[in-house]
Design goal:
By secondary structure, this protein is an alpha/beta fold. It has a domain of 238 residues: FAD/NAD(P)-binding domain (3-Layer(bba) Sandwich), CATH 3.50.50.60. 37% of the residues lie in helices and 27% in strands. The strands form 3 sheets. Strands 6-5-11-12-13-10-14-17 form an 8-stranded mixed β-sheet, with helices on both faces. Strands 8-2-1-9-16-15 form a 6-stranded mixed β-sheet. It has a 3-stranded antiparallel β-sheet with strand order 3-7-4. Helix 1 runs parallel beside helix 4, helix 1 runs parallel beside helix 8 and helix 8 packs antiparallel against helix 9.
């Protein structure tokens, strides 16, 4: 192509910034100009700040992707919490019980199963990469119409304005749950372990932080969530100690708290002529397995690959047949993960004794399944 193309990425979060950085590393990067547009102010990370409330579980494969664009070293040199183990159990069992699921990094010849990282740190690391490129960063920029570009990428989250402006229909599956998030100090050490207990009202996830605290995501009823937000720190600590089954002893609130309603959603189309959706703009899932950020990064990687190959082949990257290559590659995997998370959430929420017994038997079988367990972990790790 003889003229430079314009690519506008709407959304300066992890997914959008990763796409921008990947595009700067493409073989055909000289063929296009990239602009990142976000309504919020530019995020900034400081080691002097407390650990932020919003964190993501970054799989090994995602860490390798971020390393390939030069962003991961800044994360490692700041603060990151690798986790080496996972324990998942039902409230009718114990974390050491026969039906509890256990995953150890050593089983899979890796140093860790993943990393817990603050979202703002990830953004800051990516922005440092982009500051050394020709990408135009336009923060504090509120859009009222679609940017004028050869390709507009909606990376602007679950309430995507890009998706709304182009009229892409989205299907929603409400969970009737609200997520309560905060940080806790456990009485007992977290042992670099991600803990998840399935309760009838929803799962409680406790993720290890680098300073010994836990990042908590408690998916529960709207009523319990409201009570948690109104509770004193002592009352909330006791509520979460009970919800965790006391697996790490008493829990003490040691951070701000927040909440957000939970629902799954999936766009009917990821692409139109001149438009592509990635990350939560295209799909959003239950946070119980911490896969949302990793799916978005995989979207960004595939779209960058498709754009690069199209330009190399003399095609226009905004043409719908070209963009459909990205959609076909990602839609099935994202929808499968969405339905898996929705199904797991419903499976553990049932009060049926028969279903509970079958569920426990299935978890015991999975623990002993060998190749099946190994394949499931590799998918979660984002490695082949």
């Amino acid at each position: 192509m003889k003229t430079r193309l314009s690519i506008a990425i709407v959304g300066g979060g992890l997914t959008g910034l990763t796409l921008a950085a990947l595009l700067t590393k493409c073989r055909q990067s000289d063929a296009f100009d990239i602009t990142v547009i976000d309504a919020a102010s530019r995020p900034a990370f400081s080691m002097d700040d407390d650990i932020a409330l919003r964190v993501s579980a970054i799989a090994n494969g995602s860490a390798e992707l971020l390393a390939s664009i030069g962003a991961w070293d800044a994360v490692l040199n700041a603060r990151v919490s690798p986790y080496e183990r996972m324990r998942i159990w039902d409230e009718s069992d114990t974390p050491m019980g026969a039906s509890a699921l256990t995953f150890n990094a050593s089983e899979f010849a890796t140093a860790q199963l993943g990393f817990i990282v603050e979202n703002v740190l990830l953004q800051d690391a990516l922005l440092k990469v982009l500051d050394n490129s020709d990408v135009s960063l336009q923060y504090d920029t509120q859009l009222k119409s679609l940017p004028d570009a050869d390709l507009v990428v909606g990376a602007d989250g679950a309430r995507s304005m890009v998706r709304e402006l182009v009229g892409i229909k989205t299907n929603f599956w409400p969970y009737e749950q609200t997520a309560v998030v905060t940080h806790l100090v456990p009485q007992d050490a977290h042992l670099a372990t991600a803990w998840q207990r399935f309760l009838r009202d929803g799962p409680l996830g406790m993720l290890p932080l680098a300073d010994g605290r836990l990042s908590v995501v408690w998916s529960t009823t709207r009523e319990i969530a409201a009570a948690a937000l109104d509770a004193t720190d002592d009352e909330l600590g006791k509520m979460l100690t009970i919800a965790s089954g006391g697996v790490l002893g008493g829990l003490t609130v040691a951070g701000p708290r927040g909440s957000f309603p939970l629902r799954a959603q999936h766009a009917d189309n990821y692409v139109l002529a001149g438009v592509a959706l990635i990350g939560d703009a295209a799909h959003a899932i239950h946070p119980l397995a911490g896969q949302g950020a990793n799916l978005g990064l995989q979207d960004a990687a595939k779209l960058a690959e498709v754009i690069d190959a199209a330009i190399e082949g003399g095609l226009h990257p905004g043409d719908r047949p070209v963009l459909r290559r990205y959609e076909r590659a990602r839609r099935g995997a994202n929808l499968t993960m969405l339905h898996l998370m929705t199904g797991l959430n419903r499976l553990f929420a049932t009060d049926s004794t028969v279903v509970g017994e079958l569920r426990s038997a299935g978890m015991r079988l999975f623990n002993r399944s060998g190749p099946i367990k190994e394949r499931a972990v590799k998918v979660a790790l984002g490695v082949k």
